[in-house]
Amino acid sequence: MRIAGLVLTLCLAQQAAAAQEEALLLPSGLEARLLEVLTDRPGGGLAYRFRFVAEGFTGGEAALEAVVADMDYLCQTYAVTRLPGIGPMPSRIVISLADRPSEFGVFDPEVTQVFEAYSVQDGVCIWEMF
């Protein structure tokens, strides 16, 4: 089981490194780049976390519709399309979008960041309330 986990981790690292160079044009007009993909097994099962950075991202309630559209886009057109190459089907995908890179799990008041959770059914991202 440890070998399978190591292989999955190496596969994710290779995909993330290649994707960091790929700019994704979001519906809001911002360009996002993949920072990293993390896996964990919270109480609800396997989850993949796709962390993106978009310079100029400001978040906020005024831009709520644009943020929702960007998050849905990243899940549906990026994350879901890469699931077959990553490994087992997760019970949840978490998409995060920030204005700059940050260390996962470390609070940084200078970073503007949002995140949303999705389940996947028949290749479609379905928003999940936290």
Describe it:
The protein is an alpha+beta fold and 130 residues long. The chain has a single domain (2-128), classed as Roll (Diaminopimelate Epimerase, Chain A, domain 1). The protein has 2 helices and 6 strands; from the N terminus they run H-E-E-E-H-E-E-E. The relative contact order is 0.18. The model is unreliable at 16-20 (pLDDT under 50). InterPro entries: DUF6497. Residues 1-19 form the signal peptide. Keywords: Signal.
Structure characteristics:
130 residues; alpha+beta; Diaminopimelate Epimerase, Chain A, domain 1; six-stranded mixed beta sheet; 31% strand; globular; signal; DUF6497; Acetolactate synthase
Mean pLDDT: 84
Into how many domains do the coordinates divide? 1
- In which range does the helix fraction lie? 25-40%
Helix vs. strand class:
alpha+beta
Query: Based on CA inertia axes, which overall geometry fits?
Result: globular
Sequence of strands across the biggest β-sheet: 1-2-3-4-5-6
Low-confidence stretches: 16-20
At CATH level 2, the architecture is Roll
Briefly say what this structure is:
The chain is of the alpha+beta class and 130 residues long. Helix content is 32%, strand content 31%.
Write the layout of secondary structure elements.
Elements: H1 2-19, E1 24-25, E2 31-40, E3 47-53, H2 64-86, E4 92-98, E5 113-121, E6 124-128
Parallel strand pairs: 3-4
Antiparallel strand pairs: 1-2, 2-3, 4-5, 5-6
